[in-house]
Amino acid sequence: MSFQAYLDAVETKTGHTPRELIKLAEERGFDASTKATPILEWLKEDYGLGRGHGMAIVHVITKGPRISTKHVGTSGSHSDESDTLWLDGKATNPATSG
User: Fewer CB atoms inside 10 Å of the end CB: C or N, the chain?
Assistant: First the structure.
C-alpha cells in the first residue's frame, strides 16, 4: 500500500481529510515536537485507527507532506507517484481524480 493510499484509507475510516486531522491534532496541542504515542492513542481512541494508518497521520502531523523518494516511481506495492502527499482529500487529488 502506498503512503498516499494509507492517507486515503484514513479519510474513508474517519470521515476527515488528512489536513482536517492535522488541524484537529493542532487543536489538541500536537505538533512536530510530539512523540508518536500520544497521537496514536488519540487516533485509536477517537477514530479506531490502528498503528499503520495512525503512523501515516503521525508523519504528516510531525513532518509535513514530504516523504522519502525511496519508493517514488517504483513498481512495488509501496510505490507513490510523488514525494509530496495530497492532504486535501482523495476526491480532489489531481493525480487520481478524473
Answer: C
